[in-house]
Amino acid sequence: MPSGLLSTPGDKGFWDSGVGIVVAIGIVVVAALLIRWLIRLLVNRVVRSVTDASTKKRVARAKAGREREDTAQLVVERTTARARTLGQLLKSVATFLVLGTALVIVLGLLGVNVGPIIASAGIIGIAVGFGAQSLIKDFLTGVFMIFEDQYGVGDLVDTGQAVGTVEDVGLRLTKLRDDNGVIWYVPNGSILRVGNKSQGWAVADVMVPVPPTTDLDRVQSVLQETATELAAEPDWHGDVLDEPPVVSVESITTDSVQVRVRLHTKPTRQGPVTRELRVRVKQALDTAGVSYSKPRSGPRAEG
C-alpha cells in the first residue's frame, strides 16, 4: 500500500501526499474567505462610524445655530454617499488581493511554478495583451472620481453614456440604474464627464404661455402666491429650499408671452415638485380666469 495513504497530518510526508495537498488547498480557501469576510466587516464598521460621526457633528452644529439645518442635512447625505462608495471600492480591492493571493498559493501547492507570477515576469505581457492598460485606466479613473467626490453610491448622474442612479462603483465598472429599471455598466475609463444631479440643489421649473394682452402683473402675482403656498406646506416643505420662488418673463412674441416660475429644491426632488407645481399653477390660473396662448396653426395644404 502506498505510504502516502497511511500518513497522518503529524507526519512530515503527509503534506506531500494527494490528501495532504487537498487539505492544504481547503485550508487556504477557507482562510481566504474568512479574511475577506473580516475585511468586509471591518470596512462596513468604518463606513458606519464615519457616517455616524458626521451626522452627530452636523446635528450639533445645526442645534448650536452655526449651520443651517438644510445645509447640514445635505452635507450628511454627501458624506454618507461618499463613505459608502469608498467602502464598496475598498471591499472590491480587498477581494481582488485576498483571492489573488490565495490563487497563487493554490497554484504553488499544485506544483505550478509561481515564481514568474510573483515576479510578474511573463504574465505582464499576457495581461497587457488582454487589456491590462484599459483595466488600469478604469481603476485609476474610478479612484480619482471617488476621492474628488464627483459622485457616490445613491447619486443620480449623467455619464454621457447613461443617466441613472449609482448602485455600485467597482474596480472597473460603475453600475447605474435608469428610470426604466435598466442597469447600465459603464467602464470608469470611458467616463469623460459626469453631471451629478444629487449635489447642492436642483430647480423645479414651470413655463406658462399666456396671450400678449394678458395682465402680466396679475399672472406673476398668481404664480408667486401658488409657489409660495406649495413651499410652505408640510408635505413639500422638506423638499423645497427656503429661497423665495422666482417669477419672470422669459420671452415675448406676437403670439404669446412666456412666464416662468421656479423653485430651488433638494437634489433629485425637482421632479415631484415640478409635477405638483404644474397642477397647482393650472388650477390657480383657471380660478383667476387667465387663459393660455394657443400655438399658431400651420398653413393649410392646398388640395
Explained architecture:
Among the domains are: 3-121, no CATH class; 202-288, Alpha-Beta Plaits (2-Layer Sandwich). Helix 2 runs antiparallel to helix 3 and helix 7 (216-232) crosses helix 9 (270-288). The chain is elongated. It is α+β, with helices and mostly antiparallel strands. It has nine helices and eight strands. The strands form two sheets. It has a five-stranded antiparallel beta sheet with strand order 4-3-2-1-5. The chain has a three-stranded antiparallel beta sheet with strand order 6-8-7. Residues 1-7 and 298-303 have low confidence and may be disordered. The chain is 52% helix and 16% strand.
Order of helices and strands: HHHHHHEEEEEEHHEEH
User: Quick one: biggest sheet?
Assistant: 5 strands, antiparallel
Q: Unreliable stretches, pLDDT < 50, 5 or more residues?
A: 1-7, 298-303
Radius of gyration: 30 Å
Helix % is 40-55%
Q: Give the termini separation.
A: 104 Å
Name the overall outline: elongated
Widest sheet: strand order? 4-3-2-1-5
Mean pLDDT: 76
Strand residue percentage: 15-25%
| Content-based structural category | alpha+beta
* DSSP summary, beta strand count: 8
How many helices? The count is 9
Short description:
This protein is of the alpha+beta class and 303 residues long.
Features:
303 residues; 5-stranded antiparallel beta sheet; 9 helices; alpha+beta; 3-stranded antiparallel beta sheet; disordered C terminus; disordered N terminus; Alpha-Beta Plaits; 8 strands
